[in-house]
Amino acid sequence: MPTVDELLRHPLTRGLTLVAGPWDARSATSVVIVDAIADLARASEGAVALLTPSASSVALGYQLDVALATAGTQRLAALAVYGAATTSVTAIRLADRTRVALLTIDASVDLTELAFGLARQIRADPGGVLNRSLDAVRAIAAAEADGTEAVLEAAAATVGSTFVLRPAPGAAVSVPVVSDGRADGFVCAERDDHAALIGAHLVAGAIGRIRTVAIKAARRPAQARADALSLVLTAPDSRLASAVERARDVGIRLDGDLAVAHIDLASEPDRDLVTRRAIDDELDDLVLAAASDASGSAPRGPSAWHRARVDDSLLLICEDPSADVAAAARRVLLAARDAFPQATFFCGVGGFQHAAPGLRESASQAATAAAAARGWGRPGVPVHVDDVGLPPLLVDWLGSRSAQESMTRLLSPFAELDATRAETTVRTLQVYLDERGSLSRAGERLHLHKNAVAYRMKRIREQLVGVDLDDPDRRLELQLACRAWLLSRAAA
Fold it and tell me: Which phi-psi region, left, alpha or beta, contains residue 61 (left: φ > 0; alpha: ψ -120 to 50)?
């Protein structure tokens, strides 16, 4: 903190004169305006007390001696009085004995401007800022083990400013708290000075560490269950029994009916690895809470739901056959959309199957349904395996980029048709190919005379310029493209 002499050397303090007492006895820590001599008894140690003109008018003779004695008892740095730069011998001796600098204020000086100027000097003092900051470092480090409230109190005691936690910036000094890599509120300081800013950063760092430790501690049991379930889902058949025993060790009994929801975060060109990992971590945190929301159908509470990860996919596992897994998955997807509005998710839901082998089968079904959701272009919507109606191999192909590119390229001649004509054309071509070019069998399926089918196919061949429908490879390629096109329209 600066001494009185250092304060007096600043241009902002012109009009202040030292008339008695030491200039370097105590550091100035604050400024207070005093409207009555009796109020000096409430001033804090190290304060520079500025008497108002009305209070200064009575601070003469004996009253000035009383004011100096009170200032000495309170260990003030200085007492400033409006008036001429003259005083009594008694006052000079009292100022020396009490170690209080006695100052006079020129009548032309505005008291408010003087107070603000002195306060800015005190706050900006490099030595004082450094000392307060070092004290704060030590105090906050010692308090961190006792929690957030202890940290806030330690910072306030050493920095001289109140610190509060708020969900949004609410003061000139507002520093974000980062817990486990995510924003988690703000530390706001009452004072706006360098020491308070440094203190706010120290407090925010300490609270972030406290919360991160708590988050990781709370996450450990769920992570242990997730790891065990991931092992059950990926272990070779020869090691499935030991994987089931490990799951039992962490509290998961795989002897009932279970179902799986499979959630994929779609890859995006501008999504870097760090952002992807942050999304994965937050999804892991919100998935069980969203699935077990009291407003949904999860009557057995959080214990009925588990999460796991296989490759880069998040799996939501339910062991309550009465639960609506698709509804739970929908809540998870809504929560994910709120947390990451720019991200794209695809979701598939498997059926309830029995015990560990059934869990693996449900996971396979859910992956198939998720691939169908991707192929149909249905982000953010859970697709149940019962709605797919296709072999898994075909669904996997349908969800690939090559399927979309092939479908667009091969069926581009029909792009100019209206929706009804396009569907009629593609369906006719698909049935014709499915029936291996038989006009009569295709007619039966389409409820048309074979001549009508022949007429349609003549028009289709004319549109498919350069495509040899007698080539087996081209026929298969077109057949799959038609199937993918019709499925995508049916799912829309």
Answer: left
Considering only CA atoms, which of 111, 99, 93 is closest in space to residue 56? 111
| Whole-number Å distance between alpha carbons of 244 and 228 | 8
Task: Please compute the mean of the pLDDT values over residues 434-455 and round it to a whole number.
Answer: 91
348 phi/psi in degrees, rounded to 5: -130, 150
For the chain, the residue count is 492
| pTM for the model | 0.50
Domains of the chain: 4-124 (3.40.1390.20), 147-214 (no CATH), 254-388 (3.30.70.270), 401-491 (no CATH)
pLDDT of 275 > 60? The answer is no
Bridge-based pairing state of the strands 382-384 and 345-349: parallel
Interval 332-358 mean pLDDT: 87
Tokens for 151, please give them. Answer: 């940290």
Please name the residues in contact with 221: beta carbons below 8 A apart, sequence gap of 6 or more. Answer: 250, 251
Q: Which of 4, 13, 84, 5 is nearest to 47 (CA)?
A: 4
Q: How far is CA 158 from CA 119, 182, 198, 478, in A?
A: 18, 28, 12, 76
